[in-house]
Design a protein that fits this description.
Elements lengths: L1 H20 L1 E7 L7 H13 L5 E7 L2 H9 L5 E5 H4 L4 H4 L10 H11 L9 E4 L2 E18 L14 E5 L3 H9 L3 E5 L4 H6 L5 E5 L8 H5 L4 E3 L4 E9 L8 H11 L1 H13 L6 E2 L3 H20 L5 H14 L12
Parallel strand pairs: 1-2, 1-3, 6-7, 6-8, 9-11
Antiparallel strand pairs: 3-10, 4-5, 5-8, 5-9, 5-10
Pfam family, one: AdeT1_2
Protein name: RND transporter
InterPro entries: AdeT1/2, TRAP_DctP_sf
Length: 335
């Protein structure tokens, strides 16, 4: 009997070791491929994942649509991509990127930390079409700012009729651009800045993260400017097929992302301060308030349409009002 037990024990250990040795493929979207910041962060995450029982094989993808399609087709067991595209898998997490929802990096850190906390573990898992998905992490990419080729476009009113590059898969962008009277030009994440640089569009929204790699300065030239006012916070989500990973992997992964938030925001702050001051156009207090109200109206509308998650809208409002209690919206209902 003792021999049988020992044999069974050894066999179990071998099976466990074999299961741990199985590789999981994770598609990572980064415009710069292996040399990009997102891919480099994914490498650090993959190294840590060994300690949670997974052998990760990172698959770089410079086209986000390809990364998503590979995930859908089962070629990848997880995918790391922008929340605007990942929102289809988890609306709660994907709504952190709502219009005006996160007006600063400090609020972004609060929102991401709260979302990835153990108390929200249930919200990290979704069942769609009989398939289960889990959010394994959220990484900040920084605030999106509006860049214009002509600094004379210094207000929303002057944006009327101007061409604005929007990501065709994100309805929120299209709706908001149309609300201010601009002309939405459907684009992809791989070419939206190129359209700005070569003059096909007059305006584009992008984070400081993209300034140097995508050469936004070419579009700005001598006459361009950047509205020094965050329109939304851009994040990237890690979406897993939980059955392909060890038990409790998801929470361990989320904890890792939270632990690395300070490092990520230090990088973002460095990139934002790296944009030349000559391009930064500061808004008047009156214009800032006007834009905040416009973005709030847009959020309320998009939440009613089912694009944003109401629970996350409530979380973000609490975060905003904890930082700025005097803000006009703190005494208003609706979020």
């Amino acid at each position: 009997m003792k021999k049988i037990i020992l044999t069974l024990g050894a066999a179990s250990m071998m099976i466990a070791a074999s299961a741990q040795a199985e590789k999981v493929n994770v598609c990572v979207f980064d415009l710069l491929g292996k040399s990009g910041e997102s891919f480099q962060m994914a490498q650090e995450w993959a190294l840590a994942a060994k300690g949670w029982g997974a052998e990760v094989n990172l698959v770089p993808r410079q086209d986000e649509a390809v990364a998503d399609n590979d995930f859908k087709a089962g070629k990848c067991d997880a995918v790391f991509m922008t929340a605007m595209r990942a929102r289809q898998y988890n609306k709660f997490v994907g709504s952190i990127d709502s219009l005006g929802g996160v007006p600063s990096n400090s609020i972004a850190q609060k929102a991401i930390t709260f979302a990835l906390d153990k108390r929200n573990a249930g919200k990290m898992i979704t069942n769609l079409g009989g398939k289960k998905y889990e959010i394994g992490g959220i990484a900040p990419l920084g605030s999106a700012f509006i860049f214009v080729r002509d600094k004379k476009i210094d207000s929303i009113e002057k944006a009327a009729g101007k061409k604005f590059a929007v990501l065709s898969h994100d309805n929120a962008q299209k709706i908001m651009v149309q609300r201010v009277g601009a002309q939405a030009v459907p684009s992809d994440i791989s070419n939206f800045v190129a359209k700005f640089n070569n003059g096909q569009v007059d305006m584009v929204g992008a984070p400081a993260y993209a300034y140097k790699p995508l050469e936004i300065y070419k579009g700005l030239g001598n006459n361009g400017a950047m509205f020094n006012f965050p329109v939304l916070q851009i994040t990237a989500d890690l979406v897993l097929r939980p059955e392909k990973f060890p038990q409790e992997f998801g929470q361990k992964s989320r904890d890792w992302f939270v632990k690395n938030l300070p490092k990520s925001f230090n990088m973002i702050n460095r990139l934002e301060s790296g944009i030349p001051a000559k391009y930064k156009m500061n808004l008047t207090p009156e214009d800032k308030l006007k834009y905040q109200k416009l973005l709030r109206d847009g959020r309320l509308e998009l939440t009613k349409q089912g694009i944003y998650d109401p629970a996350m809208m409530s979380v973000l409002k609490k975060a905003r009002c904890s930082v700025d209690k005097a803000n006009f919206e703190c005494s208003l209902g609706g979020e």
